[in-house]
Design goal:
Elements: H1 2-24, H2 26-40, H3 47-57, H4 63-83, H5 87-93
Helix pairs in contact: 1-2, 2-4
Length: about 100
């Protein structure tokens, strides 16, 4: 029963975020949720997996590089979360896609 309540509350939070995103628009939402994901992301369980993978990839010699990668990753997650709500808009106008060397 506790799981059901937990999932229900999470669903309400996500729907609230969706409404909030639509109200403030794409540009502000990207910035806001990049910040939110950077603030909350490091507190979740997957941080251990992220640290292990970065340790394997970079090693312990470059902590600044690992910190930057994690920051960029959470920023990207926040932006992607927002962009899902605007997929129709993206598909409709294709203004976010730039094709270079199309003639090749």
């Amino acid at each position: 029963m506790i799981k059901i309540i937990k999932y229900f509350l999470q669903a309400i939070a996500v729907y609230f975020f969706f409404i909030f995103i639509k109200l403030i628009g794409l540009k502000l939402s990207r910035k806001f949720f990049s910040y939110v994901f950077n603030s909350i992301g490091p507190l979740i369980k997957s941080t251990i997996v992220i640290e292990d993978n970065l340790e394997k990839f970079i090693g312990s010699y470059n902590e600044n590089k690992k910190k930057n990668i994690k920051h960029e990753m959470w920023t990207n997650y926040g932006k992607t979360f927002v962009e899902y709500l605007f997929l129709k808009k993206f598909k409709k106008n294709n203004s976010h896609i730039i094709i270079k060397c199309e003639d090749i």
